[in-house]
Amino acid sequence: MHRSRRGPAHSRSQSPGVASCDRRARPRVGCTRNGRRHTVRRTAYADDRRRARSLPHRDRAQHRGTHVAKRKDNSEIDGRKLRWQEHKLARRAELSDGALAAIRARGSNTGMDEIAAEIGVSKTVLYRYFDDKADLTSAATMRFMETRLAPALAAALGQEDLDEFDLAEAAISVYVRTVADEPEIYPFIMGMTSGGTGVRAALENSERIVAELLAGVLSERLRRLGFLTEGSLTWAYGVVGAVQLATHRWMMDRSTPVEELIEHLLMLAWGGITAIAHAQGDRRVFMSERHELPVPKA
């Protein structure tokens, strides 16, 4: 009669009141093996190892690989998510460029169907990357700022060989002419400001970019002269606001030549710049002086 090598489980040595530990069974805390009490952690990894030992040798490597794959799932998901986000940003930029081209070609009242047709995609594709027309307008606004207005202003303000008057004229001229040269883009953007907070946020972000760019140049010029610079950001926002609103009003009817608009704005801006220079950038000095209009005597 054949006898089992291991013998019956109840014949092994065990401590009273403590369950025996069978290596083939799921381990339990506080069991005994070979007459010695020990503790076994209940982990998924330990279970995987026990299952692997029960497999034929040729299948063990493949089984071990499944546990490694499980641990990689999160990183693989994160990688896919990152790649999708990068693709989405690139595709949004591409479609925004296409939307700007469509508006230039078809006018400021162009709808989503016409934009899609001009780009050569279905409207479903547009809605895959944009929530609605307001979202597309917001993206197109920022794209216009990034590709047209900001680079042009940076080039104008970066001309170190210009004196302060010529620099002010160059900056105002670039802003006004860039907007004036886009008779369809500007009304398209401004016409959507009531369509949602996204478009307004994009416009505010554009204003911030221009104002901070101007403030940096103004602050550097004042610092070179030894003047105070604490008001630079406020002055920059004041100039940007004045130029933007005056240009906006002018775009509605274009009742005067663009050169006149630029020169009137330059008069306003230069008056502020000379006042800042006279007080050396110090508001206390400015407020302590008596100011009168320099009216020419007859």
Automatic annotation (TrEMBL):
Residues 111-130 bind DNA. The keyword DNA-binding applies. One of its GO terms (molecular function) is transcription cis-regulatory region binding. Residues 89-148 form the HTH tetR-type domain. Residues 1-80 are annotated as: Disordered. It comes from Tomitella fengzijianii. Keywords: DNA-binding. Residues 51-70 have a biased composition (Basic residues). Residues 71-80 have a biased composition (Basic and acidic residues). InterPro entries: Homeodomain-like_sf, HTH-type_TetR-like_transc_reg, HTH_TetR, Tet_transcr_reg_TetR-rel_C_sf, TetR_C_32. The keyword DNA-binding applies. This is TetR family transcriptional regulator.
